[in-house]
């Protein structure tokens, strides 16, 4: 069976376009490995961070967290001010594929789980997004992947049916949600595998 005709590429951001790891910040601040592991598992955690992706202001979250963990108040405070240190670089190879897609005339979009406050800090640092026609940011919309609602919003915003768009994400739950809604999908593992898929679909030469 032939693949559906894809007319646009829709990227996730974290761990697809740019690297992201909370540990990178706190490894600079906590020199004991066991204490660092405990802190990342209990205090500043990815599930806690996801509240910001879903729309909660980071300042509100930080104040609440400091009340729960007063001994770590100063470290928690730093998360809202030094968040960009959790994004060290681009994911190798993805940027060049995005540039090739753009050169081929393929419309570029993104759907990202990203808090509004942190997006405001990060977006000006990454000129690659100037190539994108639109980006759905979860924290601005108060809905997160893998919720079907954010994919339906993206269809409306991008003015294109799901079957005409290739959704690229590293999270298998997000891929499954998009599959269920009729999107074409690519489960991102590395840029080399993505390049092969884009070539097979005729999106890049």
From TrEMBL:
InterPro entries for this protein: HAD-like_sf (IPR036412), HAD-SF_hydro_IA (IPR006439), HAD_sf (IPR023214)
Coiled coil recorded as keyword: no
GO MF terms held by the record: hydrolase activity
Keyword tags: Hydrolase
Cross-referenced NCBIfam families: HAD-SF-IA-v1, HAD-SF-IA-v3
Protein name, as recorded: HAD-IA family hydrolase
Organism annotation: Pontixanthobacter aquaemixtae
